[in-house]
Amino acid sequence: MEEVIKVRQLTKSYGKKRAADGVSLTVGRGQVFGLLGANGAGKSTTVECILGTKTPDSGTVELLGLQPQRNRKKLFERVGVQFQETGYQEKITVRELCEATASLYKTAGNYSELLKRFGIGDKTKSFVSSLSGGERQRLFIALSLIPDPEVVFLDELTTGLDAKARRDVWKCLAGLREKGLSILLTSHFMDEVETLCDEICILKHGKTVFYGTIQEAVGKSPCESFEDAYLWYTQEESV
Question: Which letter, b or e, does each residue of 91-128 get, where b requires 16 or more Cβ atoms within 10 Å of its Cβ?
Answer without folding.
Answer: eebbebbbeebbeeeeebbebeebbebbbbeebbeebb
